[in-house]
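assembly run, all chains below
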Amino acid sequence: MAKNEELFNAIIKGKRKDVTALVQADVDAGASVEGILMDSMIPAMREIGDRFSRNEVYVPEMLIAARAMQAGLDIVEPLLADTGHEPIAKVAIGTVKGDLHDIGKNLVAMMLKGAGYEVTDLGVDCDISKYEEAVNDGTQVLLLSALLTTTMPAMKEVTEHFKDSDVKILVGGAPITQEYADEIGADGYAGDANQAVGAVEKVLA
Amino acid sequence: MSKSIAIPTLDQFVYGVCPKPITTARGLELGTGTVFPEVNFTLPTMNINEETWTQVVAQYTEMIDDVIRRAIELEVPQLLIEFETLPEMTIRPEWALKINRLLADKLIAAQEASGMKTALRFTPNDIREFSRPPIMRSGKYWDSMLETFAKAGEAGADFLSIESTGGKELCDEALMNADLPGVVFALGVLGCRDMEFLWKHMVDACKANGVIPAGDSACGFANTAMVLADKKMIPKVFAAVVRVATVPRTLVAVEQGAVGPCKDCAYEGIYIKAITGTPISLEGKSAACAHLSPIGNIASAVCDCWSNESVQNVQLLSGKAPEVSVEQLAYDCRLMNTAAASSPEDALRLRDWLVDSDSALDPQAYVLRPDVVLRISEKIMQEETAYGRTRAAVAAAIDELRKGAESKAYRLEEREESWLDMMEMAIEDDIPETEAEMIAQQVPLVDAAKCDLREYGIK
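ok done. output:
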């Protein structure tokens, strides 16, 4: 159960102004900023993700919640930086070379940010150098997205490129399966945006 | 364009026949009485580059040989092959044109040997979106596209098509947010403007090179919405409205000179046929090899070609997938043609069975009912501008969906009801009557990193 039920519900319902007011009130009352984030805000995003997985809400409703979450983050994030709080981990996501599809990728990025990760969105048509840059910048998990069967081989190329590195690689997209992930040596696979959060947690455990 | 629609009554709106049939140079006929297969095949999972090029050629050779052989064995009277390029082949036009020539030569030889009428539809990619934000009217990607258009005829193409994406860079986000004004802006303003620009060039290229300018598809808009709805990411009723909203955009190709058949994945083609009388290709249950859908039967109800969308060259238990695909299409067409040969009443009866088997189960099928299509088409064509038609399409679709829900003509899930309410409010409050007002409303919301409005003639 979230520590601040009112804040939790305001995020789920997408009430941006209420979220801003509630977060500011908590901050002004001296509540732990990390606690506000970890005990109420992130649980709200996880709940909306779970409701999506249960087909209780659609993506637009998740996006409304995410925007409400962002309204709270706009207050919390600068304060967290002052406390030296670190995100759970640093991840980067990009659609592979030759592929321009990004709807799924954008959703995964949103869910991971809502779950407390620092997310770098590498965009689409990403060649290996973009992923390299992210890894050099401290990324711990790379998420590769592809929607075309003809761009799937690029996932294998990226995975092989980083095989001797510590970075973890997750793959996803409509034609991708767990079997394909295993075949190319990826560390994990996610079937949708909500599963991606769990998959990242699993590879970092 | 006339305010009267070309097919005003239901008894004229059926598969296999249309008011403006086409005959190709080699005698293939569309819309003159029979439905025939359109087959699209593609590579298995593989890279496309200099090193793999001989394998690419071998794959296409095998696919066309298999499909032609099986079509002849099944006594298919007419066969349309679609060569839809992969992006690498449009970026390097010589690759696309080589494969096109290979397929064309095979089809010509098959016709000479067997008598089966054949034709080839060439569909290069819209690669302008490889630039981010997309550069729509100039640059290296546009130049490559122009080269493929110009050389399509000498490479053996009979028809030229494309699945253009002007406006998609904003529409995707609008779909994810169920933002109906955003969808109308993306389709009714940006999409229509881009279609006018693009199809003027395509039709000019076709005229200069003896190729038939066939048609476009709002696949990247409405089929994206359909897939998102199938994955329960957006409401089905919203996806149904998006489908209808694409009609005026695809209509622009015909206004510029396209004569059909519309692309197979253009389910809005049902509306295009009603409005213009041009023949259409469609796909449904026999395209499950490429994507799933809630409109597997109804999609064939008024088609003139029946397609598989695309199938990879992989081994199934019975044979390679492309030859399996042509068999599935051949039997579908055989049934439709048998009913039509029996009597016009039997054709209409089969049409109605195909329609009724799907339309009550999903709003996306409901808006493809021929009766609904005719009513909405009439309303669309009362407007004279592309934007006006898009707004009218959305309003009419919402109205039909509301009436259909109230009469329980289709299943509206409880959690979708509020979305129909929201769209009704959006039409009244958030979708302006004029394009100028819509542009004024939307321009401040556009992220210039995603979309350069100057590419659509908007300053």
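Chain B touches chain A at residues 42-48, 86-88, 129-130, 132, 172, 175-179, 224, 228, 231-235, 312, 415 (CB under 8 Å).

Strands of chain B lie at 17-23, 29-32, 36-42, 78-84, 117-123, 159-161, 212-215, 281-283, 305-307, 311-312.

not gonna interpret more than that til we talk
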